[in-house]
Amino acid sequence: MTAMLALFMAAAPPMAVIDEADTVRREPPPHGAIGMSTAWRISDFAPQPRRMEFRRRTLEPGAAIGEHPIAHDEVYYVLEGEGEVVSDGQRATLKPGMTAYLYEGAIVGIRQKGDRPLALIIAYPVKEAPVSSLAGRKGQ
User: Fold this and answer.
1) d(CA 75, CA 60)
2) Rounded to an integer, what distance in angstroms lies between the CA atom of residue 25 and that of residue 8?
3) How many Å apart are CA 115 and CA 100, to the nearest integer?
4) Which band of pLDDT confidence, cut at 50, 70 and 90, is reported for residue 1?
5) Given Cys at both, which of 40, 58, 86, 94 links 98, Cβ 3.0 to 4.6 Å?
6) For residue range 49-108, what is the model confidence (pLDDT) as tens digits?
7) pTM of model > 0.85
8) CA distances from 60 to 14, 40, 54, 109, 114 (A)
9) 134, 10 in Cβ contact below 8 A?
10) Chain centroid offset of residue 95 CA
11) What SS3 state is found at 8?
């Protein structure tokens, strides 16, 4: 296989349009299964090669994404409700329209506060898949 053919086969499609209704599931939040949440794993439905995760999650009262180390920068954007984000022991309250930009190497987490669910958008990069694992995906 020539290098040019390998590059062509690894090329991303022009776009992926995803209906969040196709991605929704109820599950405990990651990193500790603290409480219950609704997750929209939107980027899971984008064909490879993709380089970022884009998720929506609603944490029910008392729920939390437990503290965990991150190996990349990560963004939490609040749509509704109130939460408390932690990064390396530093805590901050987040409300609708607020964003926490979290840095690679930190130990981070977020918990729901108050009596309304906390709705978030979470985005972060993923490691690129090697070109060899992408061969044959074009057109699928």
Assistant:
1) 20
2) 34
3) 21
4) very low
5) 94
6) 899 999 999 999 999 999 999 999 999 999 999 999 999 999 999 999 999 999 999 999
7) no
8) 36, 14, 20, 15, 10
9) yes
10) 19
11) helix
